[in-house]
Amino acid sequence: HGVQDWLVLPSQSCDLVKAVGGFTNFHLNAANTSSDVAPLGCENAGLNWSANAVPKGNWQSKRYFMVYDEMGHGDGNQYNQALTDTLDFIFAKVPTP
């Protein structure tokens, strides 16, 4: 999710993640570094944010919620990083023949 998303507000996604549960949450700043501080719009959701590095090929959990400070609704400075993280997660979870 992007903090700058104008269509789906970050607070909406954070509330959904809280209600569903079972997510490992990452807040990535402009340098793509994880922060354990809630991203803008998610301060009141009561989620725990990992300060660890994004797994990169070793995605142990089933569900991840990634919030990027410099991304909007499918655009922004972190779009490529979000796409890379998404594909890395998918490839790590797809069984190899």
Q: Can you give a write-up of this model?
A:
By secondary structure, the chain is of the alpha/beta class. Helix content is 27%, strand content 14%. The chain has two helices and four strands; from the N terminus they run αββββα. It has helices spanning 10-20, 79-93; strands spanning 24-28, 34-35, 49-50, 64-68. Strands 1, 2, 3 and 4 form a four-stranded mixed beta sheet that branches. β1 (24-28) and β2 (34-35) form a beta hairpin. The longest helix is centred in the C-terminal third of the chain and has 15 residues, at 79-93. It is globular, with a radius of gyration of 13 Å.
Query: What's the tally of helices?
Result: 2
Main beta-sheet strand count, sense and barrel state:
4 strands, mixed
E-strand count = 4
In whole angstroms, the N-to-C terminal distance is 32 Å
Shape label: globular
Estimate what percentage of residues fall within beta strands: 5-15%
Helical residue percent?
25-40%
How much is the radius of gyration in Å? 13 Å
> What is the helix/strand order?
HEEEEH
How does the helix and strand content classify structurally? alpha/beta
How confident overall, as mean pLDDT?
95
Low-confidence stretches: none
